[in-house]
TrEMBL record:
<dbReference type="InterPro" id="IPR027417">
    <property type="entry name" value="P-loop_NTPase"/>
</dbReference>
<dbReference type="Pfam" id="PF07475">
    <property type="entry name" value="Hpr_kinase_C"/>
</dbReference>
<protein>
    <submittedName>
        <fullName>HPr kinase/phosphatase C-terminal domain-containing protein</fullName>
    </submittedName>
</protein>
<keyword id="KW-0808">Transferase</keyword>
<dbReference type="GO" id="GO:0016301">
    <property type="term" value="F:kinase activity"/>
</dbReference>
<feature type="domain" description="HPr kinase/phosphorylase C-terminal">
    <location>
        <begin position="5"/>
        <end position="142"/>
    </location>
</feature>
<dbReference type="InterPro" id="IPR011104">
    <property type="entry name" value="Hpr_kin/Pase_C"/>
</dbReference>
<keyword id="KW-0418">Kinase</keyword>
């Protein structure tokens, strides 16, 4: 087991590990997702354990159930949103890095494989100023098309 900086959220049953520099919006994104009915696993640091070919994340004991927000400080998620807003653990199914990493315009998703404890995991970079909670909901529901959309007919 090892401690990885980041925030782990459970969105529609998919564990998404958010990573990025301090102030990039990981905790704010988790708050928006919790408000939308999703669950927090861990904030600021995630204990990651490899079980066969699966990564499982949980909160360190000292931070369990807490969300650290700039301004308000530490928030007790269960007290604010109920016990259903927390999950004890989740598989790490996707990694989303909140960084300004220029990506080419494309109709295809830009998932790249990274390894955590030797286990391959899909990783995507997303600029922090994007609508992160909505993007993560789309990622978790698989709501993207695998085919480019047809061009709209010309107007006029």
């Amino acid at each position: 087991m090892s401690l990885i900086p980041g925030t782990l959220v459970l969105v529609n049953g998919m564990g998404i590990l958010l990573r990025g520099p301090a102030g990039s919006g990981k905790s704010d994104t988790a708050l928006a997702l919790i408000h939308a009915g999703h669950r927090l696993v861990a904030d600021d640091a995630v204990d990651i354990q490899r079980l066969d070919d699966t990564l499982v994340g949980s909160a360190p004991a000292a931070g369990a159930g807490l969300l650290c927000l700039r301004g308000p400080g530490l928030i007790d998620v269960a007290a604010c949103f109920g016990d259903g807003a927390l999950a004890r653990s989740a598989t790490v199914d996707r990694v989303v890095d909140l960084v300004d990493e220029p990506l080419p315009a494309s109709t295809e998703a830009d998932w790249r494989s990274i390894r955590i404890h030797g286990v391959p995991c899909p990783r995507m970079a997303v600029a922090p100023e994007r609508p992160l909670s909505a993007l993560l909901e789309v990622i978790a529901t698989g709501g993207r098309t695998t085919q480019p959309r047809p061009e709209a007919p010309a107007c006029g």
